Amino acid sequence: MTMLSLPQLVELARRYGFPNPELAAAVAMAESGGNTCAQGDPNIGVHPCDALNGTSTSFGLWQIHVPAHREFDATRLLDPQYNAQAAFRVSSGGTNWDPWSTYKDNSYMAYYYPSAPELVVPRLPPAAHAAIFTLSALTLAAAAGYAAYLDRKRGWA
User: What is the mean pLDDT of residues 11-22?
Assistant: First the structure.
């Protein structure tokens, strides 16, 4: 049995092309606890990776439900890479998580930490920097002048 951490699941999901690897990893963690050998339905348990327990119908990290997805080999679903590929296909390329109960009941949210969007800072030509600096200096001067005007008007200066 191998246990994958949430960051490891994010990396696995990223490697297999999920558009939101944090979401994919959160669903996997909620489904299997990161246990690559998870076998569930009727109930998840700890089982060896080299054999099926005989009663389960869902397998691996994303708990692929074999009766609904007979195109996948249950034994191979205990392999994290094969399971990730299957989850990618079942989720329509990572865009539809409705087949997973942990998505529908929001229990995946306990593991969902979306990454912040990257801050994009535009590159400006040197002349633009000078213009911004000049406008900033003028704005500060105007603010200081207005503050002095208000002070005189109030009789504070």
Answer: 97
